[in-house]
Amino acid sequence: MINLLAKIAFNCKGTFNKFISRHQRNLFFKNSKSSIHPSFKLGINNVLDISPEAIFDFDENVTINQNNFITVKQNAKLKIGKNTYITRATISCLNEIEIGENCILGEGMKLFDHNHKHTANPFSVSKTEFTTGKIKMGNNVWTGANVTILKNVTIGDNVILGANTLIFKDVPSNNIVTLKQEQNLKQIL
């Protein structure tokens, strides 16, 4: 009896995950201006905040794997080129983000095409108003773990962004960006 209950629970869980994935997948197709190739793959356990007016342009073999946080707001555009793979990332798109072909966007990567509006005198940071820009990534871009890319940045083709880098200005094609740091050891005994 216990084995039977375990099998039923396992099968229901699998069905539930597939249902959620299908439901989430449908969020990408709400706007008739969107163009999504039928080969688009969406994994499970993604957190999606997608406006019905969001615009998507996904070429063939785009994979957004599992455990991503994706926000695409009203009239914002997310474009992803063919054979691009994204996993465990945060993509927050209030205006426009374009990702090229054959990219591998690694775990912990964050893309933000906006900042909170703020004033200096009196000091204030808005919770709901933003200044927006664009992020454009070329083809064959690979991001290591925990890369953050901010608004108004263009990244060329054939670029590697090393782990833990903060990208806040343009990166020309055929470059590797790494974080310059030292590991200092101090003996205590």
What report would you give on this structure?
The chain has a single domain (2-177), classed as UDP N-Acetylglucosamine Acyltransferase, domain 1 (3 Solenoid). It has one helix and 21 strands. By secondary structure, the protein is mostly beta strands. The protein is 14% helix and 38% strand.
Give the gist of this structure.
This protein has 189 residues and is mostly beta strands. Helix content is 14%, strand content 38%.
Straight-line N-to-C gap: 61 Å
Biggest pleated-sheet summary: 7 strands, parallel
Q: Determine the strand fraction and express it as a percent band.
A: 35-45%
Tally of separate domains: 1
Rg (C-alpha, Å): 20 Å
Order of helical and strand elements: HEEEEEEEEEEEEEEEEEEEEE
Broad CATH class: Mainly Beta
> Structural class, please?
mainly beta
Count, helices = 1
Mean pLDDT over the residues: 88
What helical percentage do the residues reach? 10-25%
**CATH fold node name:** UDP N-Acetylglucosamine Acyltransferase, domain 1
